Amino acid sequence: MNEIINVESFSENVVKLVVKAPRIARSRKPGHFIILRIDEKGERIPLTIAAADEKAGTITLVAQKVGVTSKRLCEMKPGDSILDLVGPLGKATHIEKVGTVLACGGGVGVAPLLPIVEGFKKAGNRVVTILAARSKDLIILEDEIRKWSDEVIVMTDDGSHGRKGLVTAGAEEVIKREKVDECVAIGPAVMMKFTSLLTQKYNIPTQASLNAIMVDGTGMCGACRVSVGGQTKFTCVDGPEFDAEKIDFDELILRLGGYKAEEKEAFERFMQTVTI
Amino acid sequence: LIERVKMPEMNAMKRVCYQDREVNLGLDVQSAVREAQRCMDCVNPTCMEGCPVSINIPKFIKNIERGEFLEAAKTLKETSALPAVCGRVCPQEKQCEANCFYTLKLKKTPVAIGYLERFAADYERESGQASIPETAPKNGIKVAAIGSGPASLAFAGDMIKLGYDVTVFEALHEIGGVLKYGIPEFRLPNKIVDVELDNLEKMGVRFERNFIVGRTASFDDLKAEGYQAFFVASGAGLPRFMNIPGENYNGILSSNEYLTRVNLMNAADDSFDTPVLKGKNVAVVGGGNTAMDSVRTAKRLGADRAMIIYRRSREEMPARVEEIHHAEEEGIEFINLTNPIEYFSDENGRVKSMKVQRMELAEADASGRRRPVVIEGSEYEIPVDVVVVAIGVSPNPLVPSELPQLKVSRWGTIDVDSETMQSSMPELFAGGDIVRGGATVILAMGDGRRAAAGMHQYLSEQNAALANAGQANTSQAKN
Ligand SMILES: Cc1cc2nc3c(=O)[nH]c(=O)nc-3n(C[C@H](O)[C@H](O)[C@H](O)COP(=O)(O)OP(=O)(O)OC[C@H]3O[C@@H](n4cnc5c(N)ncnc54)[C@H](O)[C@@H]3O)c2cc1C
Ligand SMILES: Cc1cc2nc3c(=O)[nH]c(=O)nc-3n(C[C@H](O)[C@H](O)[C@H](O)COP(=O)(O)OP(=O)(O)OC[C@H]3O[C@@H](n4cnc5c(N)ncnc54)[C@H](O)[C@@H]3O)c2cc1C
Ligand code: SF4
Ligand code: SF4
Ligand code: FES
């Protein structure tokens, strides 16, 4: 079940996995994600479906090492398999022809951004994509993104690739230069918060895709709740994308830290078992 | 007169150290037989009217009295798919036992029907002589059950016996629905549910885990794969919150999340990766079974104070009486006639206290329930570091949202014919919590059985009509 067909590492901390999942490959749309559990003792974690090949019956996942499960994913090899994989989950991205779309991806957020960029391009939009990360080796999927973008601007914090600066600098330059009809921002919560503040200044409708903590992914637990426009929404069934202007990012950032102590403990336990 | 038997239990101080040890230890043979003697084999057994699936109660109890325990189990299985489960979790004091002759006429404690039911089912399981029911020859007709809670399990058992090709689809990675992810081990051990699942598998029922009908594949996809009819038993999985200020702080979670982490993901065991918040001052809001399960779980995870915050009084609590009683023994604090109105957090967004308000009960309203009303000026704060919200659930919207033509009520439950459980879409039947809102295991099972009968009749008629049409066609072709 759910055999890993191919593994490619983008950097020490980011890996691309191609996994056999024929049903999901057939029914997924841009914006959808899956939840997986590596083995009996594993945790359920959400990952976006970065791409799918219906004929081969495979989906592509991109995972960044942040804790136990993602670290173990980064160490998997072709032929290994993932015990549980369920999806597609979430609402698909609303894609239509709007004119010019500004797509902003930060870090591993570029993975979920890829199918959305592809979708907007195929719908006949002009797509300008900003790829941002701390440094060169954290910029992922650049070739794939280029394939579906009219223009790509790369921004790194240290200037090791593309231009030096934050995602917002690149975005503002585009907004000042040409008319942008819609913006999509995916990345760390802080990055989405500031991108959203920027686009609000220019009245550009903006979608952000939230990476809330999840358990079931089917609307059953409420772990993934976020405040949008003063109302509580469940990211897994009502999202993951929401109107960025209405999202309470500060609350999201606090909630993402909700299990920090417990996760750190689990990570230390895990590292102990590895060294023995 | 013989006194009602007492259920042997694990000592309260000891049992709060274990998340996974059952509190009720079960009757031994002697006490079961003695309790069975209390039943007077009434000519008009009113107890059966209290049982939603009309188990032949005097018959199974008299089997126990004669020492024919396997026969007793067989009697139970004539009507109930999961007697070992129902014997443990049915609200007997409101159902069968409430209608026992002892309760109604003698004003004495009723025959312990639930304990005896559990005894017979456990005896059969432990004897290793549980018979696998016979199944009719395969008819090759594919049907699907959606969700794997008690409603679907009962449905699948009946349909497989009738010869259908049955597949149960479940969104989660475990089969069993609430029996697995909700009700804790200390009340219903998973191994008991697993035996039933094994039996169904042996009879030929197929289980597809990690499969969300409507997402992983659509109803149309499944029809194209040959499924002729569907039984939707997707439960009432959507947790409700109170929508009061501060409710999204860290440390405040739904009972579904709390119990799922512990029961489905084994978060209390360090060798599993999933974390759970272990609070020192844990408040659980609500008074139902879910609230009792959560607060007793908190105690077992090491809380110093494990509190129930409930806006009515103990009398109105919907939880099973036995669970309330066990909770009291375990040192759970009951802060009744009290309602939370706001939460406060520390600088990291972690809840540190809750503001509550005292309530009093007004006159009974039209529904007969006494309505809680606020006592003005009675607010005070309780220090807490974990809050579990257990104020109820709503119907799971997944299936209805995929089927716009399906008729649902304004509460989001699926409308069905109460006899056949058929919905507004003829090939789609439904039952359990998705039809009733939050209900009980035994009601869900009863629905599953009625739906099986309803679907069998529907498919028989359909296929007979098809066969006739086929014959008509061939005879026409001949002419
Ligand atoms: C809809 C959705 C799509 C996602 N898509 C991707 C993707 O395509 N690629 C990818 O690499 N990641 C993605 N994520 C994030 C990913 O799920 C988390 O990184 C993962 O759950 C971490 O699990 P872990 O066991 O490795 O780390 P844990 O041990 O659980 O956590 C380690 C640290 O990471 C932080 N953390 C925990 N959960 C999250 C989270 N959900 N988001 C951000 N930080 C978190 C915590 O603060 C913690 O300190 C997505 C999340 C969502 C909700
Ligand atoms: C904590 C708790 C304690 C309880 N205690 C008691 C008790 O003591 N006594 C009692 O009688 N009752 C109790 N109940 C209530 C009882 O458990 C429920 O009434 C009963 O389980 C309902 O059964 P069901 O078959 O309708 O669905 P559920 O048991 O709710 O199962 C539904 C299943 O369907 C799955 N699903 C949903 N949508 C899909 C889809 N689209 N595709 C595939 N799968 C899907 C869900 O993941 C879930 O596993 C309790 C409930 C809870 C939560
Ligand atoms: S199934 Fe429940 S209500 Fe019916 S007899 Fe058994 S315990 Fe009583
Ligand atoms: S009503 Fe009570 S005493 Fe009479 S048959 Fe039923 S269980 Fe026995
Ligand atoms: S992850 Fe459980 S409700 Fe969204």
Automatic annotation (TrEMBL), chain A:
Binding sites annotated in the UniProt record for FAD: 62-64
Keywords assigned by UniProt, alphabetized: 2Fe-2S, FAD, Flavoprotein, Iron, Iron-sulfur, Metal-binding
Cofactor list: FAD; [2Fe-2S] cluster
Binding site for [2Fe-2S] cluster: 221, 224, 236
Highest rank taxon of the organism: Bacteria
One GO MF term attached to the UniProt entry: flavin adenine dinucleotide binding
Cofactor binding description: Binds 1 FAD per subunit. Binds 1 [2Fe-2S] cluster per subunit.
A Pfam family per the record: DHODB_Fe-S_bind
SUPFAM superfamilies: Ferredoxin reductase-like, C-terminal NADP-linked domain, Riboflavin synthase domain-like
PROSITE patterns: FAD_FR (PS51384)
InterPro entries named among the record's database cross-references: Cbr1-like_FAD-bd_dom, Cyt_c3_hydrogenase_gsu, Dihydroorotate_DH_Fe-S-bd, FAD-bd_FR_type, FNR_nucleotide-bd, PyrK_electron_transfer, Riboflavin_synthase-like_b-brl
Residue stretches spanning the membrane: none
GO BP annotation list: pyrimidine nucleotide biosynthetic process
Domain FAD-binding FR-type: 1-95
Lyase recorded as keyword: no
Protein name stated in the entry: Ferredoxin--NADP+ reductase
Source species: Mangrovibacterium diazotrophicum
